[in-house]
Amino acid sequence: NEGTYSANVNGELRKGDDEEKLNLSSAVYSQTSDMLALALSGSYRDEDGKKRKQNDANVRFSLAYRPEDDGMIVLDKLDFISSKTEEEAEVFKTEKMVNNLNVNLIPTEKSELSLQHGFKYVVDTANDFEYKGVTQLFGLDARYDLSKSWELGVQGSMLYVQSANNMDYGFGLYSGHNLFDNMVLTLGYNWKGFEDRDFSLQTYRVEGPYFRFNMKFDQDSLKDVVKGMSW
Prior knowledge:
With 231 residues, this protein is mainly beta. The protein contains 1 helix and 12 strands. It has a 12-stranded antiparallel β-sheet.
């Protein structure tokens, strides 16, 4: 798989009596070696109506890295996001830089440990008023294999909004079942939680019960992993 590349480009234009819509997206993927896969993707959406105009743009760099003969895998995605809305005399604009980092470690044959860090810098503008803020996420996720097909895990996290000096916490338990190679069905419950959709890499943190599908990683699936992260 060394040195393989793929790319795609999509576009759509819709014209109506009251609104015109344009959607563009593109992505480039590369698995440079058995240890490293990269992706660069971008999207642009423009809606032009009689009373409202909206345009959104997003550029994302994704990385999946797994050293040979090592249980560690590093996942990272960096987003640059811009959104602008115009309604009559009101103009709202949001610009964000968001980074999601996840480091998976295998301390023993039956256990896994994930360390998460998220960083977000936001600039919100409403007409002449501007707000800037930094938010950080810190997370820990530990899993233990009860058998070849079942695992038990615990996760904890903290969300820190620096401008407000405010902290939210989350913690919970979950169980995972291997449905087939590299795919796990997870059932869990968080006694305390929070939601920030910009920090969405792997772990589910909203309070209450949940189920979801997670991927497990190996060298053969690195390119598929980075493709999934790029959107």
